[in-house]
Amino acid sequence: MRILVIEDEPRILAFLARGLEAEGFSVDGADDGRAGVERAARGSYDLVILDLLLPKLDGFAVLRQLQNRLPELPVVIVSARSELETKLRGFDLGACDYLSKPFSFDELLARVRAQLRRGRPGENGSVVHAGLLSLDVARREAKLGDVVAALSDREFRLLHHLVLHEGEVVSRERLLADVWGYHFDPRSNVVEVCIRRLRQKLGEDAPIETVRHGGYRLTAA
Length: 221
Ligand code: CA
Prior knowledge:
The chain contains eight helices and twelve strands. By secondary structure, the chain is of the alpha/beta class.
């Protein structure tokens, strides 16, 4: 398993590299945002650990570029910034997890492993169908008629969740808990934002129905 750490603080980079290598991961480092994006695009990494305050290109810009170029690559943010707003922005941009500095290495390791486990069932190339919608698990791609949409990790997981519960009303609280897997502020609008993005990507025939006061339902397209 290969991990890229994008972090400009040499002490933290060395600490993470040492710790992760001791756990059997192969680790590369990049000490500014631009170098991080380039490295990520060139190497085949299984996961990226990303700092936010970085020279040349800040962490959010890095995240946006990674989402565009490598939407299936899980990104865990590790940042001294611990405000909810910053965290939500990170999740909105597609980060899988967020850890505030200072953090314990064991917690980081647990979260990294959780993300890597999550990715693995997708690698056997299975495709899930619901009506006219098909979801390619390995490619993180949704197909609806002529529309082929590349999805971010979060969009994919939300849609996958709805597909697995086709026809059922799934509440936004449940989506928050199951897809974000994090103790999210229940007032957060990340679910709405993600649904909106999915509908934009799938076009006007997107089979996602909003059920008032209920949640969302994948209708048989
Ligand atoms: Ca930094």
